Amino acid sequence: MINERNLPILATLLVFIMLYGFGMYQYQGFRDTLVFSNLLTDNAFLIITAIGMTFVILSGGIDLSVGSMIAFIGVLMAYLITNTGMHPLFAIGIALVVGVAFGAIMGVIIAFFEIQAFIVTLAGMFLFRGLAYLINLDAVPIDHPFIAGLYDIYVPLPGRGGLTFIAMAMLVLLALGILIARRTRFGMSVYALGGDSHSAALLGVPVKKTIIKIYALSGFYSAMSGVIFAIYTSSAYPLAAVGVELDAIAAVVIGGTLLTGGVGYVFGTFLGGMIQGIIQTLITFDGSLNSWWTKLAVGGLLLFFILLQKGIVVWVRKRSAA
Amino acid sequence: MSQLVNETLMVKETVEAAQSAVRPLLEIKYLSKSFTGVQALNDVSLQIQQGEIRALLGENGAGKSTLIKVLTGVYPRDGGEILLDGSLISASDSGHAQRLGISTVYQEVNLIPTMSVMENLTLQHQEKTFGLISWKKAEVRARELLAQVGLDIDPLRQLDTYSIAIQQLVAIARALSTQAKMLILDEPTASLDSDEIKQLFDLMARLKSEGLGIIFVTHFLDQVYSITDSITVLRNGECIGTFKTAELSRSDLVSHMVGKSLEDLAPTAHDHSIKRERTELLQLNNVGKQRYLQPLNLSIAAGEIVGVAGLLGSGRTELCELAYGSVKPDQGDVTLGKHSLTKSSLRHAIQVGMGYCPEDRKQDGIVAELSVRENMILALQASKGWWSPISMAEQQKLVEEMIQRLAIKTPDMDKPIGELSGGNQQKVILARWLITHPALLILDEPTRGIDIGAHHEIIQIIKELCEQGMGLLVASSELEELVMFAHRVVVMKDHHKVSELHGDEVSEQAILRTIAS
């Protein structure tokens, strides 16, 4: 069913297919499943972060703390595993609890003190980066057989490609995100809050409780992303993932979610993250272009999607006025 | 004679006894609520039976919306009791009120425009299978609820693709989904056309037959008489009385609402004649806008004051907005002198001599943080264009002159206007337009919320301006004041002009009679 609500995500899908099709047409190597599975693995931490961000943006908020959260969680994990000799599974558990708790605290401040999410999560961004430095100043390797074991899990696909543990974890978290967004009362409350928070309150949506859950969920996803990033790089570095919050926001918007909230899909965010990855891969395949061209293309796409959304809003208003 | 009175009293008592045998669905006892010293509700008591449609009427500030908000738990109450089905209730918020059985539909549709009809109808009440929302069940439920209000629409489409009328019906469908016993409709018809209103009334009649109690707030008296069983009138936070609709004449109803009876109003002598030759200024020729104001004609001459009377929501402000051009009419022509303003910009309208002081001073009129001087100079600067600034010396001269002329009480002209009293703020806004030397000035409620002294002064200023040859269009809810200065009075009702009273016809009595007719 084509209506104005899923027009942006259809546009995203079209861009995704066109870019991928272009790559397959232009480069022999692009046709192999290896490219696709690498895209899944290499962009996993970005997409996971962006899934949490989708809930935040759907509700009409923003979360700038996610990039720092990734670095902080990585450093925390490295500390727990290397310095205290804790089993990585416990370390991951603690890291996730810490991520959720910090997210929930930011949510409480946003909901109860009615302070803009922008400023609260900006404070969170500085705080987590600072905490990461407090634990460790340099990059440290995470050297543990369990982590190495996770890294080596591999389900081969036809062709040269295959699903890594990281890719599979991302896909599971994606499915979980889609379920939460569309099949739970909390998910519908998020959409309602972003559509019209005043009406949502009158309709009986528990506004404050929902806001706290949203930032806790974003905390969970960014902490999860921190864990995945640590496994992906087998190391931890306080300066890791600088600016990832902005890449995540870009993935959400390119994925068709309205920045003002209320409209969008988690699956769109997945496509948005993948599109950023494809652009990077295309530039690598080309070989003659500087990698900064990625940023240029992402910037252009972002602008295109914002204009598209604005155009749809104007179009709907005109049509309902007629 | 006294025997007769006694008998009627006895009859009345037996009727009341018979009524009280049936337990009322909703009973409000001595409800009070005040906001920082202002008594918004004072010992209000009323009872509503099952299957009764009750109109809740009153002018601005009567306490209607406060009563509804206290009922639904949006405001806590100061005193009194609310009984629903015989048991005491105390709603803590709108959701709680819904669970107790009191559902409200507001004038502005309070649904989520970006969600589908189905999602809106089932929000917070979704049925689940294995802990996840089942959209299949939700769709079935949504169709049931829509059928209940007689709507046959696609529940999967986004809400804001439907007209306001349908959205309003969807809101009612949702209100009914929570086993409502009481339905409160707060001005649901304001944005509906006559067919849509009929659809709504059919639904109300059916709900009534199913035993629901309905409180219906509206400004349209015709609607009150066509659908309600009884009427409760509020005025200044007090319950004036509850009447059977069939037994209350329109003129009595209007008297109760405005607090003056026709008999009390002995015509006072005011001079309504114009002293000068008539040169037409503003001409509205068949000007109207769909769902806003019925087409009407109006002309104002230089040196003439035309009053606009009518109850709240009758279309007074709408007439002012269309005449000024801040809302563009979709039919008819507006001319000022020899300039056609039908298609021109507001800036052009101001340049050729139009001025407008809106009703809501705080929201539309003043810029609270700016100084008296800056507020006063705004319109003049806007009409000149921002590229030709007015020199500070010239500004000070103009503003000083106006402060003197209108006797504005401010320590100096650089004080933020927000710190002035209401009456002085109003004078600053008047001054803002006076320094542009308008030919025609439109004033919407120029004396609302200001003290008696300032009230008198503003009326004097209006009269002086008129003597200097300005044309004025003044909308006011205070008939007494209109009668004092208006040469003619346009009477508005239900968004159309019902009559125009000239010269000696202008009296409070005549205006009230026209509104009630």
What can you tell me about this protein's structure?
The complex is a heterodimer of chains A (322) and B (517). Chain A has 322 residues and is mainly alpha-helical. Chain A has one domain: ABC transporter involved in vitamin B12 uptake, BtuC, CATH 1.10.3470. Chain A is built from 14 helices and 4 strands. A two-stranded antiparallel sheet of chain A has the order 1-4. In chain A, strands 2-3 form a two-stranded antiparallel sheet. In chain A, a hairpin with a 5-residue loop joins strand 2 and strand 3. The longest helix of chain A has 29 residues. Chain A is globular. Chain B has 18 helices and 22 strands. Chain B folds into 2 domains: 244 residues, P-loop containing nucleotide triphosphate hydrolases (Rossmann fold, 3-Layer(aba) Sandwich); 237 residues, Rossmann fold. With 517 residues, chain B is of the alpha/beta class. In chain B, the strands form 5 sheets. In chain B, strands 6-9-10-3-11-12 form a 6-stranded mixed sheet, with helices on both faces. In chain B, helix 9 packs across helix 18 and helix 13 runs parallel beside helix 15. Chain B is globular. Classes of the chains: A mainly alpha (322), B alpha/beta (517). At the A-B interface, helix 8, helix 9, helix 10 and helix 14 of A face helix 3 and strand 8 of B.
Strand count, sense and closure of the main sheet of chain A?
2 strands, antiparallel
Give the CATH level 1 class of the largest domain in chain B.
Alpha Beta
- Tell me the β content of chain B: 15-25%
CATH topology call of the largest domain in chain B: Rossmann fold
Concise synopsis of the structure shown:
Chain A is 74% helix and 3% strand. Chain A is mainly alpha-helical and 322 residues long. Chain A is globular.
Topology:
The complex is a heterodimer of chains A (322) and B (517).
Chain A (H helix, E strand, L loop, with lengths): L6 H20 L6 H10 L1 H15 L7 H18 L4 H25 L4 H19 L4 E2 L3 H8 L1 E3 L5 E3 H19 L1 H11 L1 H6 L4 H27 L1 E2 L7 H11 L11 H21 L6 H29 L1
Antiparallel strand pairs in A: 1-4, 2-3
Chain B lengths: L1 H20 L4 E10 L2 E11 L4 E5 L6 H8 L7 E6 L2 E2 L5 H7 L1 E4 L11 H6 L5 E2 L2 E2 L1 H14 L15 H14 L4 E5 L7 H16 L3 E5 L3 H7 L2 E6 L2 E7 L5 H9 L21 E10 L3 E9 L3 E5 L6 H9 L6 E6 L2 E2 L5 H6 L2 E4 L3 H5 L6 H13 L7 H14 L16 H13 L5 E5 L7 H16 L3 E5 L3 H7 L2 E6 L2 E7 L5 H9 L1
Parallel strand pairs in B: 3-10, 3-11, 6-9, 9-10, 15-20, 15-21, 18-19, 19-20
Antiparallel strand pairs in B: 1-2, 1-4, 4-5, 7-8, 11-12, 13-14, 13-16, 16-17, 21-22
